[in-house]
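Subject: Interface between my chains keeps coming out wrong

I've been trying for a while to get a sensible model of this assembly. When I model each chain on its own everything looks fine, but I need the whole thing in one frame so I can look at the contacts. Pasting all components below, labels as-is. Any help appreciated, I'm running out of ideas.
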Amino acid sequence: MLQTNLYHVETVEQFQELLQNNEKVAIVCGRMGPMCIPVYGVMESLASRYPDVQFRDMEFDSPVGRETIRALPETRNFNGLPFTVYFRNGRVVAATSSIQTKQQVKEILDRTMCGTTAGAQG
Amino acid sequence: MDARYDVIVIGAGAAGLTAGIYLARARMKTLVVDHGTIGGQMILTYSVANYPGVAEASGAEIVATMRRQAEGFGARVLGQADILRMDLSGPDKVVEVEDEGTFTAPAVILATGGVPRKLGIPSEDAFQGRGISYCATCDGDFFMDQDIVVIGGGNSAMEEAVSLTKYARTVTIIHEFDHFQAQPWAVEEARKNPKIRFLMEQDIREFAGDEHLEKVVVVHKRTGEVTAIPATGAFLFIGYVPNTAHLKGIVHLNERGEIPTDDLNRTNIPGVFAAGDARVKRYRQITTAVADGTIAALSAVDYVNERARQPAMPSRRQRFLKERRPVQA
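Reply #2:
Try treating it as a single job with all components included. I did that and got this:
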């Protein structure tokens, strides 16, 4: 179990419901490790600034992690924790590997989640 | 929200949080603010085994305890806070934080820490998370039975290279000099490991690959010979640089970007103190950061109390009237 203040995605069903019921979703898939903890913190701090984005985390070594985020073609070549994936209307619009700063995350959110152009590729 | 503090601490790593603990315990109204994650580099440390009094703990655990202590004594700790403006020149220091407001205090402690040194070549950023890593414990298992490189020559490079042999088929340590900065015991441990080989006096020219890292191109510093080393992973441990770029022109920095202080951690500006890895010093450890934070905090307490004892500066009119008053015999 991840010890963060984010809501956790713990099953494949939760993951599917999340994407079906929300236009904008950002999921950090990681462990409680040195590169992951700062990214959870960044997401927590940005939740109030981007109220229309659903920020979640997911245990990297869990079945849901293996079957969803880690199985995406966009993360196939990733080998740095955490994997962070941004969805809009159920489609991947951006994905990053390894630690990210608040500025980098904001840049991605502003580029992919703002405006009404659904499904823009990041 | 009250915007007036006794002391503002910029940076919430080991030095900043320690300063927060000492200041708040001394009944100073204290704000600790960090643009990143609370804990600084300490939180990036998987395991700390040499912090006196703590048998072994993760950096995150030590950070959580330090933060609880600081907040328990009354300090306000703000993370992920973008500092928009800092004016430390006058008697009242001003720090403006995005979404939080403008804060003032008679004293400021700069505990901005360090950031990992980067090679500064364009392909480094392109392969971050796609082969390039800064954490062996986090990412080592992605490289099971693969050939990887470790770049660096200090203790971290040696220790992490040994640790990575648990996963990788081979580990090549690439270093820019003909000798290591690491302690002899760390070098010996690496040399004993049959999976580790060494490439000395090499500059990194390029990281290359298609969708992920495939090779590291190096140039021998004396002969100019270019070698492409097949590698799917590159772990960089080339030290840290002081996180002071944003302080240029605000406080005096030396040629390495470090903040010079006296032995009470006072900078060149009255009321501004420095602590931790951003300060000029030889050894950068959690323990030395904690010591720095303590000294800076106690010096700041003295400064604030001394300033409170001084009478307020008279106005120009008061000075004028005083000068006109005839001297009584």
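Reply #3:
Confirming on my end. Chain B has two domains: 7-116+240-309, 122-236.
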